[in-house]
Design brief:
mainly alpha, about 65% helix, 2 domains, 14 helices
Length: about 350
């Protein structure tokens, strides 16, 4: 029996087709929209570089090379590139449907609750398909990096979970390779394997993989992550916007301050809750491609620490849920994942807030 047979339900083709059609309805009317923001300088001055250099270990080389190859064969008409982004988003919706089914089913052993696996996962994929935040990855062409990083991260999860449940080493190797491709699609994927750690602990009774194979897999994740961190030194732990320090200096915001990274951590910890709010209440009027957020200017006032204290409390709350039984444990895994994914944003300091960089 096929592994994926366990995650197939009646009328799945109809449900999958509905999701794909929904994506088309949302995005097809806007295929002729003009280029926006960073898309313009990229297509004016950068795209030909990726057309002539098919492989090199540059940041985001994989998605940008797809732009270059497309440019060579189809020119620079935006609709062609938008269709590609649309197809990637549709693929991610279907992959997410499968991943959510796997995650939920791992925590449900009662056959009478199969509808939760079936419709709960479908509802999650439905929300993702048409969520306003997804527009910033699909409509903003240069953020194909996010679409491809998401795709490879989902493949990584599928391969890893299958490797655990079947004890097959080849799927763990596939998971490591998918992580490599996710990182070279968008370096913010650095913490993606950490999502799998609480899951591994939560389903250890179902794990058929040997301890040695599991350790080798995590060593592979670590080596790939270390390689990319060394390759992209200058992104994590330093300004994400390379002109941020100069901007601070020009505006005399932080004269005499040597704690920019700490201040960025305090700022990002507070913004975490704004990200959560916008995911739950996706009001387009509160969003922007290039949001200018208030940057905390001093760590010596108690109000500057409210966001970080709340973030730590949120993490503790997540661990409490994770230690409980179903359904609290499943909810706790979700909370832990959201905490983990923020860390790639905390490792750098940022002056502006771009929703395409939201973990």
């Amino acid at each position: 029996m096929s592994f994926f047979h366990n995650f197939v339900y009646p009328r799945d083709r109809v449900k999958a087709l509905f999701l794909v059609l929904l994506v088309a309805v949302v995005y097809v009317p806007f295929l002729n929209n003009p280029l926006v923001f960073d898309d313009i300088p990229f297509f004016d001055a950068v795209i030909d570089h990726y057309a002539n250099t098919l492989f090199r270990l540059d940041l985001r080389w994989f998605p940008y090379t797809t732009f270059g190859v497309t440019w060579v064969f189809f020119g620079e008409d935006p609709p062609v590139f938008r269709i590609q982004n649309l197809l990637l988003h549709g693929m991610n919706v279907l992959l997410l449907l499968l991943v959510l089914r796997m995650w939920i089913k791992l925590f449900i052993t009662d056959a009478s609750k199969e509808n939760i696996v079936n419709w709960g996962a479908w509802l999650g994929a439905l929300v993702f398909a048409c969520h306003p935040l997804a527009v910033y990855g699909v409509g903003y062409l240069i953020q194909r990096s996010i679409l491809m990083a998401t795709m490879f991260t989902l493949v990584m999860q599928l391969a890893y979970i299958r490797g655990l449940l079947e004890g097959e080493k080849r799927y763990m190797a596939l998971a490591v390779m998918a992580y490599f491709l996710a990182l070279f699609s968008k370096e913010h994927s650095l913490m993606a394997p950490a999502i799998l750690l609480p899951l591994t602990l939560a389903i250890q009774a179902q794990n058929k993989l040997s301890l040695r194979a599991l350790l080798v897999t995590w060593l592979g994740f670590a080596l790939v992550g270390l390689f990319v961190v060394l390759r992209i030194k200058g992104i994590f732990g330093v300004p994400y916007e390379m002109d941020a320090a100069a901007l601070f200096g020009e505006q005399a915001l932080l004269q005499g301050t040597s704690s920019l990274h700490l201040l960025s951590v305090l700022t990002q910890a507070g913004l975490f809750f704004k990200y959560c709010l916008l995911m739950l209440v996706p009001n387009p009027a509160w969003m922007s491609l290039d949001m200018r957020e208030s940057f905390i200017l001093t760590w010596q006032e108690w109000t500057s620490w409210v966001g970080l204290v709340a973030f730590v409390a949120y993490g503790a709350f997540a661990l409490v849920f994770f230690a409980a039984r179903w359904p609290c444990r499943f909810i706790g895994v979700g909370f832990v994942v959201s905490v983990v994914l923020l860390h790639s944003r905390i490792f750098k300091y940022t002056y502006s807030g771009n929703f395409c960089a939201v973990p």
